[in-house]
Amino acid sequence: MFSRYKLKFIKKKCLNLQSIRCCSEALKVPEIDIEFGNGKKFKLSTGKLARFADGCAVGTIGETSVMVTAVSKTKLSSTNFLPLVVDYRQKSASVGKIPTNFLRRELGPTEQEILTSRLIDRSIRPLFFENYNYETQIMCNMLAADGVNNPDIVSINAASTALSLSDIPWNGPVGAVRVGFIENEVVINPTRKELQSSNLNLVVTATKQNLVVMLEGHANSILQPDFLKAIRVGTKECQHVITAITKLQKLFGKPKRVLEEHVELTAGILEALRSLTQMRVREIFKNHQHDKLSRDQALNVVRADVMEKIRAAYPDADYSLVSEAINTIIKQEFRDLVFEEDIRCDGRHLEDLRNISCEVNLYKPLHGSALFQRGQTQVLCTVALDSHQSALKLDSLSTLTSGVKEKNFFLHYEFPPFATKETGRVGPIGRREMGHGALAEKGLTSIIPSDYPFTIRLTSEVLESNGSSSMASVCGGTLALLDAGVPIVAPAAGVAIGLFSKYSNNDTKHMEDYRLLTDILGIEDYMGDMDFKLAGTKKGITAIQADIKIPGLPLKVVMEAVQRATDAKSKILDIMNNCISKPRTDKDNWPVSQKLQLEPHKRAKLLGVGGINLKKIFLETGVQINQIDDTMYEVFAPNQNAMDEAQEMMNNILTSEKVPELEFGGVYKATIVEIRDIGVMVTLYSGMPPALLHNSQLDQRKVAHPSALGLEVGNEFQVKYFGRDPVSGLMRLSRKVLQASPR
After folding, report:
1. Record's GO cellular component, any one (predicted)?
2. Residue 727: partners with Cβ closer than 8 Å, 6 or more residues away
3. DSSP character at residue 257
C-alpha cells in the first residue's frame, strides 16, 4: 500500500483585469489529491465555499462530493461538557431528484442521516481538548452522489479537514477509510457494488502514530485473524489521509484561537474536598454488596454532605466548580481502585462476566419471545413474522447511497425511562436508541437466512439498564429468533469491553498502564476510556462499535480488546445454548407461506372482478395472496388453519363450475355475446368466460368490422379450437378454416 498526494491551485477566470486583481487571492482553491495503493483517489479542497465558517472543506471520491463546515462560538458554554452537534444531511438535489413529500423539500433527518451523523461525531469528539466547552457545530452537506462511492467516509475526512483548517483548538487531524474483505483480500474504500460481495464492511478512523479513534462495522462471521488484519491495514491507510490534511493545514490553516482561562478552585478548597470525599467514596466502591441504585444513592449522600460542609466553610466558593471537582475526585478514586486491586466495584475480577439468565417462550400468542438478564441489564425481545409485503422500504436517497432497497429483517430498540428509574417524555425514537438498535441489527443480520420466506421484525425493549443494553439485545434477539423457529445460520452474542488507562500529555501512544474490563457496568462505561462493543458467533465476528473517549488507542490495546471480547462471547453462547440451542418446531401459531402456480387462463377467475375474490379471502381468513410473476403467486397465512381455509375457498372458486375438456382441433358451436371492433366475443359452453374470435379468423375474406358480415349478438356458428396461447392463456379459435376457399 502506498499513497501519493499533490497540491495544486485552481484560479477561476474573471470577467476583467480589475476583478482579477480584486479577487485573485480569494479565488485560489487549494486542492490535495490522495491516491491509495489500490489506485482509488480521494480529493480534499478548501477556500472556495462557505468562507464565513470557521473552517470549510469539500471531500470528493469518484463523483461523490460532501461539503463540511465547522463553526464554534467564542463564548464559553455554561455546561461542563463539550456541546458538539454533528448534522449530516442528504439532499435530493445531489442525485437529481425532487423530494416526493407534500412540501417537495427535505424534512426531518432520516435514519441513514442520523446514523452517519453519529459516525462522524464519534470520529472527531475524542480529539477535542478536555476543557473545550464551547458550542460547536459540524454541518455536512452532500453536494453530489454518484451511487457508487459512499459519502460517509468522505464526510469524516472533510470534517477532519475543516476542523484542522479552522481556528478551533483540536488535537487532530484524523483520517478514515472503509475496509472490505473480498476473496481473502483487504480492499480499501470498496464501491457499493464491491461491498455486496464483501464479508466485511468496516469503517476505521485513526489519528497519527497509528492510533485508532473509532471502529464501526458489520461482517459475515469473519474470522478473528482476518478481522485484525483489516484493522491494521485500515489504520495504516488512514495515515495517508492524515499526512495530506496536515500538509494542507500547514499551508492554509488558521492560527488556533486562545481559549479563556478556566477559573479554578483554591488549593484550600481542593484539599478540603479531598479530605471530605476520598475515603468515604473509596469505602462505597469497596462495598461489593451495593447494586446500581444503592451505590448511586450512597454517592449522592456523600455529594450532598460535602457540598453542605463546603458552603458552610467557604460561602464565596463557586458551587458549580465544587460539584465538578467532587465528580472528578469520585472518578479518580474509582479508577485508582481498579489499578490497585484489579477488583471492580461489584466484586468481579477484570475478565469476569456478570450473572446471566435466559428464558424463552414467555407468551404463547407471540411468534417468538425471550428475556435476557445480565446483571442488572434486562432486555425483553419479541419476534413478529409477516409476509414480504411488510418488508421495510427505504427512501430512494438512502437506497442509492447504501445499496439496500428494502429489508426483510429489522430490529427496533426501545429504551423507556423506567429502565434507569427515571421519568421522561415518551415519543419519537431518539438518536441514541436508533444507533443502539442499528448496532444490534448489524450483529444479527448475517445469521438470518437469505431465502427466509417471511419478514422478521425483532423488537428489543430494555426493562432494566446497567450497561451494554445493545449487546444484550443481540443475545436476547438470538434467543427470540430461535424461539420463533427461524433457521438462523448460527447463534450470536455480544459483549462490551471497557478500558482504564494512564498516560501523560495526551500521549496515548505510550501508555504508562492500562486495564481492560470485560462486560462493563454503566458506571464503568461512564468512568472509563472506552466502550468496545463486539458481537459474533462461535466462528467469527458479525458487528463492532468502538466508542473511544481518549485521543487514540494503540493497535496493541485494540487487538487485546478483540481477543477479550471473543473469549467472553464464547462463554455467553455456551450459557445461551443451555436455554435453547436450535430453532423451535413445536408452535402452532406460526405463519405459513407457500407458492401457488396458476395457468394463465385461470388467473382472472381467481382474482375476480377488481380483485374481489382476493379481498374476500383476506377479510374472511386473513390470508394474503400476492403475485410474484405472470404465473406464480405467494400465499401468506397467519397460521395453518387459515391456510387450509383459504385453500378450500380457492378450490371452490376455481372449480365452482365443471369445465368441459375441449379437444385440440375439435369443432364446436359458438354463440356471439359481444361485438367489438377487432372481432366478436363468443362462448362455447354455458358459464364460459367469453373468448375473442378475431376479425382475421371470421371469414376467408378480409374483414374490417364484424358488421360487414351481418353478425349480431346471439348468432351461432361453428368454430375450430386450436388450444390456448402458451403466454397469455387465451383460446385460439377460427371460423374461416371451416369455410370453403373462394374460387
Report:
1. mitochondrion
2. 600
3. P
Amino acid present at 522: G
User: 381 and 480 in contact (C-beta within 8 Å)?
Assistant: yes
Q: Where are the domains of the chain?
A: 4-252, 267-341, 356-579, 592-654, 667-738
Q: Same CATH fold, 592-654 and 267-341?
A: no
pTM of the shown model: 0.84
Average the pLDDT over each of 8-17, 37-46, 256-265, 568-577 and give the range with the smallest value.
Answer: 8-17
Q: Say whether 556 sits in a helix, a strand or coil.
A: helix
pLDDT tens track for 301-329? 999 999 999 999 888 888 888 999 999 99
Per-residue pLDDT at 230 exceeds 90: yes
Separation CA 171–CA 148 (nearest Å): 32
Contact call for residues 731 and 602 (beta carbons, < 8 A): no
In this predicted structure, the answer to whether residue 686 has a pLDDT above a threshold of 80 is: no
Decide: helix, strand or coil at residue 457.
strand
Helices (H) and strands (E) counted in the chain, each on its own, are 16, 30
For range 356-363, the mean pLDDT: 94
Query: Is the pLDDT higher at 74 or at 529?
Result: 529
Report the Cα 507 to chain-centroid distance in Å. 33
pLDDT for 86 equals: 95
Strand partners, 536: 493, 541
> Given this structure, which CATH class describes domain 267-341?
mainly alpha
Given a contact cutoff of 8 angstroms between Cβ atoms, the answer to whether 459 and 414 are in contact is yes
Q: Per-residue pLDDT averaged across 684-695, rounded?
A: 84
Torsion of CA 603, 604, 608, 613, to 10 degrees: 0
Q: Are 569 and 249 in contact (CB under 8 A)?
A: no
Place of cell 455554561: 78
Q: Determine contact, residues 692/681, Cβ cutoff 8 Å.
A: yes
DSSP code at position 689: P
Q: Across-strand partners of 209?
A: none
Predicted local confidence at residue 608, as pLDDT: 74
Fold of 592-654: Ribosomal Protein S8; Chain: A, domain 1 (3.30.1370)
Residues 6+ apart with CB under 8 A from 458: 381, 382, 383, 409, 410, 411, 412, 441, 444, 477, 480, 481
Which ranges in 544-634 belong to alpha helices (H)?
555-579, 600-607, 612-621
Per-residue exposure over 210-223, b if at least 16 CB sit within 10 Å of its own CB, e if not: bbbbbbbbbbbbbe
- What is the per-residue DSSP string for 376-403? TEEEEEEEEEE-GGGSEEPPHHHHHHH-
Pick from 91, 86, 87: nearest CA to 105: 91
Distance CA 205, CA 157 (A): 9
Report the candidate in 298, 175, 296, 304 with the shortest Cα–Cα distance to residue 246.
Answer: 175
Q: Domain 356-579 classified CATH 2.30.30.180? A: no
Pairing of strands 185-188, 455-464: unpaired
Grid coordinates belonging to 16: 476583467
User: How confident is the prediction for the chain on average, in pLDDT?
Assistant: 87
- Of 10-19, 333-342, 401-410, 644-653, the one with minimum mean pLDDT is 10-19
Question: What count of other Cβ atoms lies within 10 Å of the Cβ of residue 378?
Answer: 20
Q: With beta carbons less than 8 A apart as the criterion, state whether 454 and 488 touch.
A: no
pLDDT exceeds cutoff 80 at 490: yes
Fold type of domain 667-738:
OB fold (Dihydrolipoamide Acetyltransferase, E2P) (2.40.50)
Question: Higher confidence at residue 207 or residue 612?
Answer: 207
> What's the confidence (pLDDT) of residue 12?
38
3-state helix, strand, coil in the chain (%, to 5): 35, 30, 35
What number does CATH give the domain 4-252?
3.30.230.70
**Identity of the residue numbered 580:** I
| Amino acid at residue number 667 | V
Q: Give the pLDDT confidence of 151-184 residue by residue, as tens digits.
A: 999 999 999 999 999 999 999 899 999 999 998 8
First to last CA, the chain: 87
